[in-house]
Structure formats: C-alpha cells, structure tokens
Specification:
The protein is an alpha+beta fold. It has six helices and 15 strands.
Length: 307
C-alpha cells in the first residue's frame, strides 16, 4: 500500500484568484471531484490552516499544502462475514451493521468491512460508488450499529441518493447521552465542518454544511438519558457533534466525550440507527424498517436503570 504524499506550492501572481479545487487538482494531479473531496476532508491547507471550501481563492504568496492519503485497495474481495439481511429484492437491500464494523475499505481498514460482506451475500451491487463503495448509498460510523440501505443497481442508487439529498429519507437513531435533559424534546442546528485543528474530528464551524438534529426523550436514566434523534440532514458525526455541543455527549464516545467518562462504556458511542424509511425507487411504495439495538446497548440501558 502506497504511503501518503505531500504536495506544497506557493501561489504565483498568475494563479491568484483560481479556485482552490482547481489548484489542488493540478498540484496533486487528481480529478477536480477528487480535489473537492480532499478539501472537504481537511487535507488541503492554505498558509498552515485547513481550508474546507472548494471555491476559496488563495492570494498570491499563499502556500497551499495538499496531503494525498495512501491508496485504498484497488479491488475489494468478497468475504464470508455473517450478515443480517432484513429485506432485499432486485433493486435494494436493508441490512444490519453491527458496531465495530467499517462500512467500506479505506486506509487502515482494507477488509472485514460491510462491503466485503455484501459482495459475498448479495447477487449484485450498484456501481456508482466505484470498486471501493459498491452499493453504498449512505454510511454509519464504525462504532454505531443499525440499519443500512444498499442499492443493487444504478437505477435504485440514483433514486435513493436523490431522496437522501432531498431529506425525504426517514432516519432515526437511539442514543444514550450523558446527563439529564431539561426539556422533553428539542432541536439542535449548527453547520458542521472539519474541526479547524483536529482533522479526526468534526465541529460546528462558520461556513460548515447546514445540519439539523431533532431529539426527544425516550427514557430518563441514572446520570444519562435515552434519546430518539431524527436527522433532517446527514453530516459526518452529526448526532455526536450536536449533542456534545449542548453539553450532552454520547456515552462511550472517545472523540467528543469528556476525557473522564462518567461510566466505563467500552466499544465506542452508544448510538444505534433503529429506523429507516424511504420510497421504493421502482414501485413507489413507502417502506419503513426498524430494528432493536444490539446487546451492548441494551445492557447499558438496563444497568443505568438500576444504578
């Protein structure tokens, strides 16, 4: 596997005023869409600070630094990994992703992913996501469990992606957060983008992508609360960032939780995607699926009732 590459260039008078994605594409010899992805991922810096706007125009004398990550595997092989399929037909499937499983291969996770399992258990997958992400319409964090919608052909992939873009797909999560909530329900709004100093984290930042999370209390626990969180948008780490921003980080969250956890939750944040609803691309039928949390989540829910 190739190592990450670094490209650095000082902007000339002739280059001043060019869009950052155009400059990045030329500097790293990648496509403009790939350049845009690098920018969104915080891998492009201007004068030492990450710049996440593709349309940003550096000035003459600015230094642009591009980090091109190590290449992911060129091919993804099918692996006989157990897979729970709740539903499938000729166009799509709804599957259950356990916590601890990565959705698709990437640097550091070349195999053992949901995609490896899908290639083994489903007869076909859409090609829009490329060789690394076949069939993947949306993602769930590694340590989050729950329902994943998979496209089996390009027709369904395009339709489902459009529904997600239009915010018409129903997505609801169960989350156990730290502390008690003052209200029974609420909404968190805040634009989310790459953290200005920590590339592994997201944050509410000026110029980030609009993000809205609706929450309501399902159960009050000892020093914690079980919530239902509904997403209007689907940004990276959205629920984790939004709940931490109002002082109620998810229990077990190693990235956005406090350094000293109130309870010794292992295995990552207690977050479960329990409901997904959408319109079938071919039949127009409204479809809704629900699945309960896995044992680790339910065990902590019980323990926090008894403390």
């Amino acid at each position: 596997m190739a190592e990450a590459q670094i490209f650095i260039q000082v902007i000339s008078d002739e280059q001043a005023g060019e869009r950052l994605d155009v400059l990045t594409a030329a500097l790293a010899d990648v496509t403009r869409s790939r350049a845009g992805a690098l920018i969104r991922d915080g891998l492009v810096q201007v004068d030492g600070a990450p710049q996440t706007k593709a349309g940003f125009k550096p000035r003459s004398g600015d230094e642009v630094r591009v980090e091109l990550p190590e290449a992911a595997p060129a091919r993804v092989e099918a692996q006989d990994i157990p897979l729970e399929i709740l539903y499938q037909d000729a166009d799509l499937a709804v599957v259950y992703k356990p916590s601890g499983m990565v959705v698709h291969p990437a640097a550091g996770n070349p195999d053992g992913t949901m995609v490896n399992a899908l290639l083994q258990h489903l007869d076909q997958l859409s090609g829009i996501g490329g060789e690394i992400r076949p069939g993947i319409v949306h993602r769930i964090d590694k340590d989050t469990s729950g329902l994943l919608l998979v496209a089996k052909n390009d027709f369904s992939h395009a339709s489902l992606s459009e529904q997600i873009k239009a915010h018409s797909v129903q997505r609801a999560y169960m989350a156990i957060v730290q502390g008690g909530m003052r209200e029974d329900c609420g909404t968190v709004e805040g634009p989310i983008g790459r953290h200005p100093t920590d590339r592994k984290k997201m944050a509410i930042v000026p110029g980030g992508r609009d993000a809205v999370t609706h929450w309501r209390v399902l159960e009050k626990l000892k020093g914690a609360t079980l919530l239902e969180c509904r997403l209007t948008t689907g940004r990276t780490h959205q629920i984790r960032v939004h709940m931490a921003s109002i002082g109620h980080p998810l229990l077990g969250d190693p990235l956005y939780g406090p350094k000293k956890m109130p309870y010794p939750v292992q295995g990552g944040q207690l977050l479960h995607a329990f409901r997904i609803g959408f319109v079938h691309p071919r039949t127009g039928e409204e479809m809704l699926f629900e699945a309960p949390p896995e044992a680790r989540f339910l065990d902590w829910q019980r323990r926090l009732r008894l403390i």
